[in-house]
Model the fold of this input.
Amino acid sequence: MSDEFDLTDLDTASARPGALDAAPLSGQLDELVERAVGARLAAEAEAIAQAQFEEMLTPELHTALADAVRRALTAATTPEAEPGEQGSVGEVGPYYPNAYRFFTDFLAPAYRRKTVDYPAMRWCPSWFCHPEARARVDALWRAWEYLRLDPATGMSVWWKDHADHHMAKLLSPDGTFKDCTPHHRQVHPLPSIDIPTELLNLDDAHPAATQL
Done:
């Protein structure tokens, strides 16, 4: 019969000009699907990593990261000293711009102590309102800036001779904040009668000028 299907007709049709070749098309589709799946997996992985990073980024870690970046920038922009030479703070420039930034970024995170409901130590969160505390933190900052340039024992000397000494005075129950409260209370200066004018006018820093 003329309507009977012949398998040779299929082979002939597949060889006709313009007929699609299924094998290369299938390969292209597989490649597109693989790329799309890879891109989606990468996007999901990035979202998960971002969420985990934000969860782990504590204030302490943020401070440590900022400190590391600052050290890297300082190292990249500071000329290397000649062998046997040690740069001065004036030549290199301070690492922290002032004592308050030094306290916030370094001293407070590094020197952690229990000061709330703990009678063995006293501290005032408004420490910068106390002249003695300001002076001691400023001294700590200046000593740190100088000693950090000593790569051998500078930091050890700073901790032993400066930090431990001044912080012990600041945190002592009989020290700077003895009469203060957790919410700050102004502490009166040491009492003194009026100092004679001739004593106030002494110039011990420039004795030669006083003798003129």
Confidence is low (pLDDT under 50) at residues 77-85. The chain has nine helices and no strands.
